[in-house]
């Protein structure tokens, strides 16, 4: 913006740096004053630019080394001074009273009071006894007298004489009479001049040296070039505004694609808008990028806020109709998770074409003749566990938990292993999953696909009649899953005790004995619903959102969970016996409410909540199994999901190395360091998943009629004296806090309504009706 042009010397010896400085300021990016200079330096401006700016500032009397203007005239009440405001604009104020030892309070013509440092003062208007009303008069009169052409005449005279001049000298050449208004007009003309004079400080006072004719000619050329650039910028901005306005009016499917916006002129404005909308990056706080974003919002008629930036980006099609800030924030200013970098995707594809050597080839047990079933949700694409049953005769049997073997494909210290470590886990979002490995692997050779010969890590367990472990085997294997069942399919087969699947029924019996065994050993079973969210066409304005409760209490879900817990116990036992460092998980014994207290609570969620509130935090060990009280086990180690949990894959690396008679990749200390990193990444993923879920749940309720009532169950009082209670909106499995209007006994159903649903803020609040 030419209006922001400031004093920059373009002397021969600093032509290059001055030209850059001029361009920088002409675009409205320049700042003056000591604190502003330090701010720019903190922002890591290119050092050469910094030096050019600092040099120019010092030549013009700004920043460090500036003297005379504020100190040549004693500051006192009633002085009128020009000072630099925080927003880079100059303003006139009348000084009222001191603010400490050096600063002064001053009032501008709008009645706004500023605390002003002497270093901020650029000019003192001659005279004293001014009041606020005089500011307007001085500004008006100085504007009328401000004719830049007069400066050229003064330059011609002084250039011929070859001597420096003060403001007063130049004023006499420009005006026939002298007044505070003409002096201020002269100061303003000289302040805005970049052509005729160079400002210097001599003996504490500002003087002006006339430039050589050749220098003036060059400066005039630069000014003309700046004007042309400004005109071109204005035209580009006009076209850009027109493109945005047109896009806003188009249906979403016809809006320009994001990549089209990236190719447009002035796309830097869009980057500033994204930074502002996400509250991360250069436009998150005060500065040039923020001003650029706010200028764009103002031009387009949008609110100058983070939400306004979000809305504009969505309206023009650069962002989707439902853009989740935290997910976009990770993509834009963190490490991308929605897609894999090209070299990682390429490594995955090459792995399939050129299969790596299988170091366990000779030790793999051939179990391809065993009937293996996989049971998963219908939407699951990463199949990382299957179940098998082996009749040993004489009433004895062995159950098998076959686990996908990604370490057969993904070796340590490869780009794929490092990427899996960075991601830590597959991320399950309402719109779909974001895998830990490229899908060409996770949904392909890493998965236990029906009808395919697959590499697996198999754990066979003979379970005693009382549910304890009698013996176990742990081997790398080949398996060939017969077919894949959904949980609904498996529930149906179990309810019918189908003769077609006797193995499934037998496995269910083993699972039941294991469940009883763990219960006798103190396992704590808490049955509460989880809120599940599914979204179709999440990028469209008519996205379909489904919110429903998910209870982990169906027969098939209990069966699978029990067998995975069994595999985890065996792994902990085997690792401890072998002295292998593993991420052993444990949990101290909880101090549960006495049974008589639990029986006084209504059966169902109220009791479950009471138990949950007394549970202890899980702990981790790396040198041996530790008791896991809530599972009722002497030891436990997660092992059954290596395609979607990096920690499980680490267990595979460690155990398989032991089984082949080689050293494990990590000792206790090294494993602890890796798991610290993985645990931190996993917590970030869980937080992101919760925020995305919250977004879609809030959007679901935002769409509902405002007067819709929902049935909720009073679970417990959080602060009964404040009437704050925890309730369960059973239709959706949502547990939330509600400020009650009336007293109710626990377990009573009440009616609640939505008081606020703000998807972008992730806020959803209910109130009693």
Automatic annotation (TrEMBL):
Source superkingdom: Eukaryota
As recorded in UniProt, coiled-coil segments are 216-250
Biased region (Basic and acidic residues) positions are 1-12
Name all RNB domain ranges.
Answer: 364-661
The GO terms describing molecular function are: 3'-5'-RNA exonuclease activity; RNA binding
GO cellular component labels? P-body
Region described as Disordered: 1-43
Which SUPFAM superfamilies does the record match to this protein?
Nucleic acid-binding proteins
Gene Ontology biological process terms in this record? mRNA catabolic process
What are the entry keywords? Coiled coil
Its name, as the record gives it, is RNB domain-containing protein
């Amino acid at each position: 913006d030419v209006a922001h042009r400031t004093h920059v010397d373009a002397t021969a010896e600093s032509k290059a740096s001055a030209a850059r400085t001029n361009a920088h300021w002409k675009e409205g990016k320049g700042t003056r004053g000591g604190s502003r200079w330090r701010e720019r330096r903190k922002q890591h401006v290119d050092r050469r630019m910094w030096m050019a700016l600092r040099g120019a500032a010092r030549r013009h009397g700004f920043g460090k080394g500036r003297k005379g203007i504020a100190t040549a005239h004693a500051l006192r009440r009633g002085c009128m001074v020009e000072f630099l405001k925080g927003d880079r604009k100059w303003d006139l104020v009348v000084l009222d009273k001191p603010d400490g030892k050096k600063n002064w309070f001053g009032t501008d013509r709008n009645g706004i009071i500023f605390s002003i440092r002497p270093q901020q003062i650029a000019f003192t208007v001659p005279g004293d006894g001014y009041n606020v009303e005089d500011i307007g008069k001085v500004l008006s009169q100085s504007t009328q007298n401000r004719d830049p052409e007069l400066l050229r005449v003064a330059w011609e005279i002084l250039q011929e004489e070859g001597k420096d001049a003060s403001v007063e000298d130049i004023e006499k050449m420009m005006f026939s009479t002298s007044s505070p208004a003409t002096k201020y007009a002269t100061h303003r003309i000289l302040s805005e001049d970049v052509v005729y004079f160079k400002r210097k400080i001599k003996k504490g006072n500002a003087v002006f040296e006339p430039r050589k004719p050749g220098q003036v000619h060059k400066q005039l050329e630069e000014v003309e070039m700046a004007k042309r650039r400004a005109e071109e910028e204005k035209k580009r901005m006009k076209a850009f505004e027109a493109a945005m306005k047109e896009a806003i009016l188009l249906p979403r499917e016809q809006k320009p694609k994001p990549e089209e916006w990236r190719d447009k002129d002035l796309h830097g404005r869009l980057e500033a808008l994204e930074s502002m909308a996400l509250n991360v990056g250069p436009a998150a706080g005060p500065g040039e990028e923020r001003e650029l974003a706010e200028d764009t919002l103002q031009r387009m008629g949008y609110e100058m806020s983070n939400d306004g930036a979000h809305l504009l980006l969505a309206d023009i099609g650069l962002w989707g109709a439902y853009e989740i800030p935290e997910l976009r924030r990770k993509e834009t200013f963190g490490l991308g998770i929605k897609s894999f970098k090209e070299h990682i995707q390429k490594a995955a594809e090459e792995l399939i074409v050129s299969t790596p050597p299988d170091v366990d080839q000779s030790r793999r047990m051939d179990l391809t003749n065993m009937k293996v079933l996989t049971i998963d949700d219908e939407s699951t694409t990463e199949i990382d566990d299957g179940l098998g049953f082996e009749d040993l005769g004489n009433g004895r049997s062995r159950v098998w938990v076959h686990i996908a073997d990604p370490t057969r494909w993904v070796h340590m210290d490869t780009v794929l292993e490092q990427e899996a470590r960075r991601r830590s886990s597959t991320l399950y979002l309402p719109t779909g999953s974001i895998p830990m490995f490229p899908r060409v692997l996770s949904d392909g050779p890493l998965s236990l696909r029906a009808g395919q010969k697959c590499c697996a890590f198999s754990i066979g367990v003979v379970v005693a009649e009382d549910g304890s472990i009698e013996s176990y085997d742990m081997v790398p294997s080949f398996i060939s899953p017969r077919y894949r069942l959904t949980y609904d399919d498996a529930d149906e087969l179990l309810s019918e005790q189908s003769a077609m699947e006797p193995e499934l029924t037998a496995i269910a019996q083993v699972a039941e004995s294991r469940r009883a065994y763990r219960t006798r050993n103190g396992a704590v079973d808490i049955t509460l619903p989880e809120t599940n969210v599914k979204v179709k066409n999440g990028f469209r304005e008519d996205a379909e959102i489904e919110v429903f409760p998910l209870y982990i209490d169906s027969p098939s879900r209990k069966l699978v969970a029990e067998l995975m817990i069994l595999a985890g116990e065996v792994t902990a036992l085997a690792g401890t016996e072998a002295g292998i460092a593993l991420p052993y998980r444990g949990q101290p014994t909880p101090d549960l409410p006495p049974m008589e207290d639990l029986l006084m609570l209504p059966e169902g969620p109220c009791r479950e909540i009471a138990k949950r509130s007394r549970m202890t935090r899980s702990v981790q060990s790396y040198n041996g199994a530790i008791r896991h009280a809530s599972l009722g086990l002497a030891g436990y180690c997660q092992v059954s999901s290596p395609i979607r949990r990096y920690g499980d894959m680490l267990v595979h690396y460690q155990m398989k190395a032991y089984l082949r008679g080689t050293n494990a990749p990590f000792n206790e200390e090294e494993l602890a360091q890796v798991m610290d990193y993985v645990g931190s990444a996993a917590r970030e993923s869980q937080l992101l998943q919760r925020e995305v879920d919250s977004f879609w749940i809030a959007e679901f309720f935002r769409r509902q009629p405002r007067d819709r009532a929902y049935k909720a169950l009073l679970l417990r009082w959080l602060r009964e004296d404040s009437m704050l209670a925890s309730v369960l909106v059973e239709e959706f499995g949502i547990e939330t806090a509600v400020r009650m209007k009336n007293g109710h006994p626990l377990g009573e159903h009440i009616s609640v309504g939505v008081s606020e649903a703000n998807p972008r803020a992730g806020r959803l609040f209910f109130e009693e009706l």
